[in-house]
């Protein structure tokens, strides 16, 4: 049996090369490869890096789908299905909106794959693959390690991606993670993670956890175990951990180089609307930042604009705050309603969505705001987010922040990483803007599964009204 694994891009525009910044090894196909019986011949293609060989013989195609890559995934699936090759899809988008994904795939995996993927492969071999596979419970992680040999010969950042856990205990309104995992978290056994790191030696590791600090007790135990390895790592965390001195000590001692933290906004009213009031506990941002700075922990805060109280002054104040704090990196993104989230449901009920399904609409481009705020117009939110990115990653800001020798440039490694990351993001500022969903030059109509209903006519025609 031959299995083809594909990681789709967001989209392609003409002959322009795809965005090169931050292209890391995608873990989902490596996990699927590890779950697949050893006698299955596997091929892996990354749509961001290479052309897909449509004519290469294969028996089954598997695609992991995120909302931003959904249209491109359906294009890829249609190419294979026209050749008579069946397609299975899974991932976040397939779990959040399986009724849509099932229109373009013979089988859909809802939830995590560990429990159901071996069953799906066995069913396929016996000619009885089902249209839906749904895991009945959260998996016990650690039984398999990702098969990273499928990445051989491909050009990725020299950074090791390692999964320590999945899920987050918080319930932010806009977050697809909480819609996917329902405020639960599962973790890999620490010994398994350490073995993965020792086997997969890299100068820097990225723990891809949705929130590595969701369970503070488990996180502390994990960081203690990391200390003897003397590695460097980055990950995502929630800001509440900044008030735990023992935690901050262990984070630094275990080799943390940077934490990505969702600040989201400086406005308390907007934080309440997001269900993130915990961000301002125990003295708020200023106290949290003082604690983090004392331990020399570099920060990559993310901010969201588009809540009803946001104004141009809101964004200008946020930008000034980021530059004053000399953050290592910062993200300025517009609010995005992902399907299945409380935010999407609220905006849909309030009739505030600009597009019924923005991720499929050919009029939609990356960076566009797909809903109507009661404050700023969609185009104005887009302009202000772009303005903030251009300012923060402009040379005056980069130089100013590089002179922070206490944190950002406290070591040669830190300084080198600072300039590398900031210059990469500077190049990326305009590259992503207006990127189409799917391949703009692929005018072949999408091919629905026989009997699929409820598909917008313009999607099947391959053109928007």
Task: Give a structural overview.
Residues 460-465 have low confidence and may be disordered. The protein is built from 17 helices and 16 strands. Helix 12 runs parallel beside helix 14. The longest helix is centred in the C-terminal third of the chain and has 20 residues, at 412-431. The chain is of the alpha/beta class and 465 residues long. It has a six-stranded parallel sheet with strand order 3-1-4-5-6-7, sandwiched between helices. Strands 8-11-12-13-14-15 form a six-stranded parallel sheet. The two termini are 42 Å apart. The protein is globular, with a radius of gyration of 22 Å. It is 35% helix and 15% strand. It folds into two domains: 2-140, Cobalamin-binding domain (Rossmann fold); 159-431, Alpha-Beta Horseshoe (pyruvate-formate lyase- activating enzyme).
Mean pLDDT: 90
Structural class: alpha/beta
Could you say what the CATH topology of the largest domain is called?
A: pyruvate-formate lyase- activating enzyme
Distance between the termini: 42 Å
Oligomer: single chain
Outline: globular
* Strand ordering within the main sheet: 3-1-4-5-6-7
Low-confidence stretches: 460-465
* Domain module tally: 2
The fraction of residues in strands falls at 5-15%
DSSP helical segment count: 17
